[in-house]
């Protein structure tokens, strides 16, 4: 019996957040019901938040189920060999109506030891930015634990952190240990290791509807933070109808594709590929079938799909594991 292999879409897992808004609906057409939806998890195997297939013969099955049944076909031979039946990445869209908390993620070693989890290396692609929108990434100058704690206690932490204005199309690559926060007025596509481990350092003294503050993780963060000055901004080419590398790290490769015509894709079967449609609309032709996608869609291309054609007028992020 042939195993069903075709481009997979998943039901979005929507998350209300104290800092969330409504742009995931107005800009990305997500089916949100609240005025504080902060995140749409597009592809996830985080415990309790596992994606479910939304289309085709596998509709209704979880991502974990189909990986369990077809690990080589879905993940790819090299990915399966390296990670077993784990899906190693997490894909999200975020809408920050307000500033997110200032936070940091532990590296693989620390995350494994404390949480039996992967670390959380991530990248951000700025899909939409209000005027004067900015992010926080790392320290202005080299710092240390003592200076960090003093500024935290004096509520002057922002004075030693690097504050960067951003615009649509900007990309930032955040290695583990980088203190960071997405600022208000941004819609972001986020690609990261499969992990939900976050150490929250400062939350602007906010309270929720019940008057409660959110938990901080100040002590845990001390040895997770990289106190060096870091360069997170990524420049990249935008040559049409080819894959332009943005990020190439041990955890994932992300390319930019500016699609204006048809583009043939040929693969080896080593890794799955994910497309996040950042703008426009495109079609994918595989095995004499055509599939249509629009801005805000995320599609998982199983590794066994070794030859297909994409066409249209769109901006895509193309992600796989090298």
Automatic annotation (TrEMBL):
<dbReference type="InterPro" id="IPR051804">
    <property type="entry name" value="Carb_Metab_Reg_Kinase/Isom"/>
</dbReference>
<dbReference type="InterPro" id="IPR049071">
    <property type="entry name" value="MPI_cupin_dom"/>
</dbReference>
<keyword id="KW-0479">Metal-binding</keyword>
<feature type="domain" description="Mannose-6-phosphate isomerase cupin">
    <location>
        <begin position="245"/>
        <end position="320"/>
    </location>
</feature>
<dbReference type="GO" id="GO:0004476">
    <property type="term" value="F:mannose-6-phosphate isomerase activity"/>
</dbReference>
<dbReference type="InterPro" id="IPR014710">
    <property type="entry name" value="RmlC-like_jellyroll"/>
</dbReference>
<dbReference type="GO" id="GO:0009298">
    <property type="term" value="P:GDP-mannose biosynthetic process"/>
</dbReference>
<dbReference type="Pfam" id="PF21621">
    <property type="entry name" value="MPI_cupin_dom"/>
</dbReference>
<dbReference type="GO" id="GO:0008270">
    <property type="term" value="F:zinc ion binding"/>
</dbReference>
<dbReference type="InterPro" id="IPR016305">
    <property type="entry name" value="Mannose-6-P_Isomerase"/>
</dbReference>
<feature type="binding site">
    <location>
        <position position="105"/>
    </location>
    <ligand>
        <name>Zn(2+)</name>
    </ligand>
</feature>
<feature type="domain" description="Phosphomannose isomerase type I catalytic">
    <location>
        <begin position="11"/>
        <end position="117"/>
    </location>
</feature>
<dbReference type="Pfam" id="PF20511">
    <property type="entry name" value="PMI_typeI_cat"/>
</dbReference>
<dbReference type="GO" id="GO:0005975">
    <property type="term" value="P:carbohydrate metabolic process"/>
</dbReference>
<dbReference type="InterPro" id="IPR011051">
    <property type="entry name" value="RmlC_Cupin_sf"/>
</dbReference>
<dbReference type="InterPro" id="IPR014628">
    <property type="entry name" value="Man6P_isomerase_Firm_short"/>
</dbReference>
<keyword id="KW-0413">Isomerase</keyword>
<feature type="active site">
    <location>
        <position position="200"/>
    </location>
</feature>
<dbReference type="InterPro" id="IPR046457">
    <property type="entry name" value="PMI_typeI_cat"/>
</dbReference>
<feature type="binding site">
    <location>
        <position position="122"/>
    </location>
    <ligand>
        <name>Zn(2+)</name>
    </ligand>
</feature>
<keyword id="KW-0862">Zinc</keyword>
<feature type="binding site">
    <location>
        <position position="180"/>
    </location>
    <ligand>
        <name>Zn(2+)</name>
    </ligand>
</feature>
<protein>
    <recommendedName>
        <fullName>Phosphohexomutase</fullName>
    </recommendedName>
</protein>
